[in-house]
Design goal:
- With about 250 residues, the chain is an alpha/beta fold.
- The protein has two domains: about 160 residues, P-loop containing nucleotide triphosphate hydrolases (Rossmann fold, 3-Layer(aba) Sandwich), CATH 3.40.50.300; about 70 residues, no CATH class.
- Helices cover about 40% and strands about 25% of the residues.
- The chain is built from nine helices and ten strands.
- A six-stranded mixed beta sheet has the order 6-7-8-3-9-10. It has a four-stranded antiparallel beta sheet with strand order 2-1-4-5, covered by helices on one side.
- The longest helix is centred in the last third of the chain and has 18 residues.
- The chain is globular.
- Bound molecules: adenosine-5'-diphosphate and magnesium ion.
- Adenosine-5'-diphosphate (ADP) binds next to α1.
Amino acid sequence: MLLRVEGVSKAFDGFLAVDRVDLAVEKGQLACLIGPNGAGKSTLFNLITGHLRPSRGRIYFRGRDITGLPPHRICRLGIGRSFQRTNIFPRLSVFDNVQVAVLAHHRQTLRFFTPARKLLRRETEALLEAVGLADVAHLPSGTLSYGLQKQLELGIALASEPELLLLDEPTAGMSPQETASTIALLARIARQRGLTLLFTEHDMEVVFSIAEKITVLHQGRVLAEGPPEAVRRHPEVQRVYLGEAA
Ligand code: ADP
Ligand code: MG
């Protein structure tokens, strides 16, 4: 198991936002976390990435206990994430934004000339290609459409070469068409790079068509977990969450 969350809770002033959650993600899996607003999805992501400390429970990545490690250490170990608001430099070109992230990952600076720079340049180009931004690489990032900025954020997140990528609502604010194409892009990248994905998504049609495993959170607890068909049929899930849509 690549990621294992065991009995993790997070209390905010006595309120249990995450309540004894167990969650496991296998290497290479496309796993989706769903649940109504306030279910605890973002809190759980922040616990996994080290931005919050659990009140109880343990988190293991590749069998190693990462509970309570600071975010930069967890990132170095191979868990990447995209932020709601990424550090995109709007006046820098798309290429430069990704290159800055690639250089940061390899602990290089733009001024430092080494033969490795050529490799890093190729890596930047490969990332731009992967996220579908090769054609707009020269444009200032601030001029990109919302959907393309999201793709740029993904390219930046991939620059740290994560083994597991956590994406919290990667399609927020997108039209159904943009959502479908973004998720398809994610799935393709994950396959090509052997990446494991854990993401949240509100479009149920998209979730059930693409996720290999779904975990349903409700009021901080895991309500159901399993392959899409099993989760869709789960009576509690239908009652509490999916309603008529199921
Ligand atoms: P989701 O991402 O599923 O919508 P969140 O994890 O953001 O849910 O929030 C879960 C619950 O925890 C909500 O009731 C929210 O108000 C609460 N919460 C989240 N972060 C904090 C915080 N820093 N302080 C207090 N309460 C919080
Ligand atoms: Mg959230």
